[in-house]
Amino acid sequence: MLTLFVDAYYISPYAFSCFVALREKGVTFEMETKNLSKREHRQGDYPERSITGRVPALRERDERGDEFWLSESSAIIEYLDDRFPSPAHPTLLPRDARQRARARMIMAWVRSDLMPIRDERPTTTVFYERAETPLSPAAEAAAARLIQAANTLIHDGKASLFDSWSAADADLALMLQRLALNGHPIPDKVRAFIDAQWARPSVRAWIDRERIPYVAY
């Protein structure tokens, strides 16, 4: 009864975040794709039902056929934690109030800042072809901020940021992979964190998906 709408190229970091969250929750869901280069997210009744006309969007349909729609990845993740609570399902955000607040901070930060990295190392360079041009001074400065923050947040020998895995781990790892996979120097403990996140089955299920040829949009 759950459907996650994602981009057809499987490159959206926000769709990635929701997909990983659903897999970690262990709930059954289907996926439907929208080809953004063909503006499928602007066609039919999708813009009205999703409200924002963007991906990802989550549709929940009950036995009577009534539907609930929700857009924006952070809202979807928090809804999933409320809708499928522990102990029946793993949590997506830490139980401790301060850790939960810190997780939300990290998730908000990688969605709203570090624009030079997002511009010059888009997720196509993670899931398709690697970048061929060096970072600009602005992107180098953003990369230094990102790595400094990661060094502060990641504790030696820890595979996750908090007492247990959270959605913030996957989000931060993907942001860091924009640098790591494109040859940027990464400190050893940060690389170990990235590798641990990249090996999670929920993350591998997204990485290893067969992708259609990319068309820029």
Describe this structure in words.
This protein is α+β, with helices and mostly antiparallel strands. It folds into 2 domains: 2-90, Glutaredoxin (3-Layer(aba) Sandwich), CATH 3.40.30; 97-202, Up-down Bundle (Glutathione S-transferase Yfyf (Class Pi), Chain A, domain 2), CATH 1.20.1050.10. Helices cover 48% and strands 10% of the residues. It has 10 helices and 4 strands; from the N terminus they run βαβαββαααααααα. It has helices at 13-25, 46-50, 73-83, 97-112, 115-120, 124-127, 137-153, 167-180, 188-198, 201-207, and strands spanning 2-7, 30-34, 57-61, 67-71. It has a 4-stranded mixed β-sheet with strand order 2-1-3-4, covered by helices on one side. A hairpin with a 5-residue loop joins strand 3 (57-61) and strand 4 (67-71). Helix 1 crosses helix 8, helix 4 (97-112) runs parallel beside helix 8 (167-180) and helix 8 packs across helix 9 (188-198). The chain is globular. The two termini are 31 Å apart.
Name some characteristics of this structure:
217 residues; alpha+beta; Glutaredoxin; Glutathione S-transferase Yfyf (Class Pi), Chain A, domain 2; 2 domains; 4-stranded mixed beta sheet; 4 strands; 48% helix
List the helices and strands and how they pair.
Layout lengths: L1 E6 L5 H13 L4 E5 L11 H5 L6 E5 L5 E5 L1 H11 L13 H16 L2 H6 L3 H4 L9 H17 L13 H14 L7 H11 L2 H7 L10
Helix pairs in contact: 1-3, 1-8, 1-10, 4-8, 8-9
In a nutshell, what does this entry contain?
This protein is 48% helix and 10% strand. The protein has helices spanning 13-25, 46-50, 73-83, 97-112, 115-120, 124-127, 137-153, 167-180, 188-198, 201-207; strands spanning 2-7, 30-34, 57-61, 67-71.
